[in-house]
Amino acid sequence: MNVKPDFSKNANQAATAPAFLSIWDMHAYYGESYIVQGVSFNVHEGEILALLGRNGAGKTSTLRAIARLADPEVKRGEIWLDHQPLHTMSSYQASQAGLGLVPEDRRIIAGLTVEENLKLAQIAPPVGWSLDRVYELFPRLRERRTQEGVTLSGGEQQMLAIARALCRDIKVLLLDEPYEGLAPVIVDEIEKTLRIIKDQGITTILVEQNAVRALQLADRAVILDTGGIVFDGTAAEVLENKELREEYLAI
Ligand SMILES: Nc1ncnc2c1ncn2[C@@H]1O[C@H](COP(=O)(O)OP(=O)(O)O)[C@@H](O)[C@H]1O
Ligand SMILES: [Mg+2]
């Protein structure tokens, strides 16, 4: 009989610090399609958590559910951010509560310059970083501030999308495949900014297909497979565990 090892048993060993963001028994559906099937994990304040798994494992759906977007619909479970019950909130309220989602397609607004894209994020409270602070982190955006956002390179658009999230007063940054389609030197640059953002006290969930790069940056990792958690532990444990990498990450 082929019994798969249960790597999720590590769950409570790595989690010594108290949870800052806590997802508990979350079940979410696209219409009748049951996709997020009882997901629980904790994120500690100030850490970078890599959320990994093969294509179709449910990573984007999990991020969308945490961000309280309409799809997929969370029908059961709880999501707590710094003592606030996100599961009772709309996506707008979750954003107000400090959640910043950078979706895979980046959503740069056409017809607006780089600076207008950033200013739009600051239109309603709670406002986060000033433009000066954002430009200090991303000097390239300052250089291109009068350029239309959608005409930027892929890497610059990713920087703009992250910068825009920081223009809101966020506690947690949710990044969906920020390295996708980018050259390794640009990934280096984005990675450097993610370290600085971490140093400023922001907590990050990083979803990436580029698992090795994500694990090199992350403190801990959670691996999803068919809508459930199959591993919860340190990033180093994943990098050291060949069986786990081959089974769920194909690396
Ligand atoms: N809008 C949708 N309607 C129905 N099913 C969806 C929708 N979006 C994603 N799915 C399904 O949910 C599963 C998980 O998808 P997703 O969360 O995008 O995975 P990942 O981000 O890990 O690649 C897949 O089987 C996918 O086909
Ligand atoms: Mg995805």
TrEMBL record:
InterPro entries given in the database record: AAA+_ATPase, ABC_transporter-like_ATP-bd, ABC_transporter-like_CS, BCAA_Transport_ATP-bd_LivF, P-loop_NTPase
Annotated Gene3D superfamilies: P-loop containing nucleotide triphosphate hydrolases
SUPFAM superfamilies registered for this protein in UniProt: P-loop containing nucleoside triphosphate hydrolases (SSF52540)
A molecular function (GO) term: ATP binding
Residue span, ABC transporter domain: 21-251
Pfam families registered for this protein in UniProt: ABC_tran
Keyword tags: Amino-acid transport, ATP-binding, Nucleotide-binding, Transport
Family, similarity comment: Belongs to the ABC transporter superfamily.
Protein name in the entry: High-affinity branched-chain amino acid transport ATP-binding protein LivF
Organism encoding this protein: Roseobacter fucihabitans
